[in-house]
Amino acid sequence: MHIAIEQAKGRDKAGLWGPAARLLLGLSLLLGIAYPLAVTGVAQVLMPHAANGSLIVRDGKVLGSALIGQDFHKAGEFWGRPSATGGSAYNGAGSGGSNLGPSNPALRKVVAERIAVLKAAGPVPAGAIPQDLVTASGSGLDPHISLAAALYQLPRVAQQRKLSEAKLRALIDAHTEHGWFGDNARVNVLRLNMDLPR
């Protein structure tokens, strides 16, 4: 009796391989090929610019993506939020924050260095330096700075480019984006720097 039961169990297990293999193949085709193709097709139809990386093109040349920050560091440019991606700045393959807490001496040191660089670059307004100019974001790729961070840099960029602060302020205002919830005003650094008078 015991042998008969074991033989029946063996036959039942052998009979499951076919349905399991068919289920694996079917789900692989559905979720690994059909679904991604469908989502890609819908995105290409409804929002092709975003689906292709939100690339910013001028005169046939790709200048960057509106979604990933760039390493601007000249005195006559607006600077973005610092990147903590390691290696080269704004490296998408190394996306991530520094994971240093506010009491960490290494973070204090790097923030102090960034403050010194900001102050040495040119005139700065009185008051506190906006936090996003001296600390990295969680991704290390943030393409935006706060409106306060853009305004903090306004005197330096105006002096370097020999522009009136009023004209530059109007350009910042034209590039200011507002969030859906609350004010949360922010400026895309690449777009702003692209439109600076040459």
TrEMBL record:
Source organism superkingdom: Bacteria
Main location: membrane
Subcellular location: Cell membrane
Membrane topology: Single-pass membrane protein
Alphabetically ordered keywords of this record: ATP-binding, Cell membrane, Ion transport, Membrane, Nucleotide-binding, Potassium, Potassium transport, Transmembrane, Transmembrane helix, Transport
Stretches that traverse the bilayer: 20-38
Pfam families referenced in this protein's UniProt entry, alphabetically: KdpC (PF02669)
Assembly description: The system is composed of three essential subunits: KdpA, KdpB and KdpC.
Entry function: Part of the high-affinity ATP-driven potassium transport (or Kdp) system, which catalyzes the hydrolysis of ATP coupled with the electrogenic transport of potassium into the cytoplasm. This subunit acts as a catalytic chaperone that increases the ATP-binding affinity of the ATP-hydrolyzing subunit KdpB by the formation of a transient KdpB/KdpC/ATP ternary complex.
Family affiliation: Belongs to the KdpC family.
HAMAP family: KdpC (MF_00276)
Protein name: Potassium-transporting ATPase KdpC subunit
Lineage: Bacteria, Pseudomonadati, Pseudomonadota, Betaproteobacteria, Neisseriales
Gene this chain is encoded by: kdpC
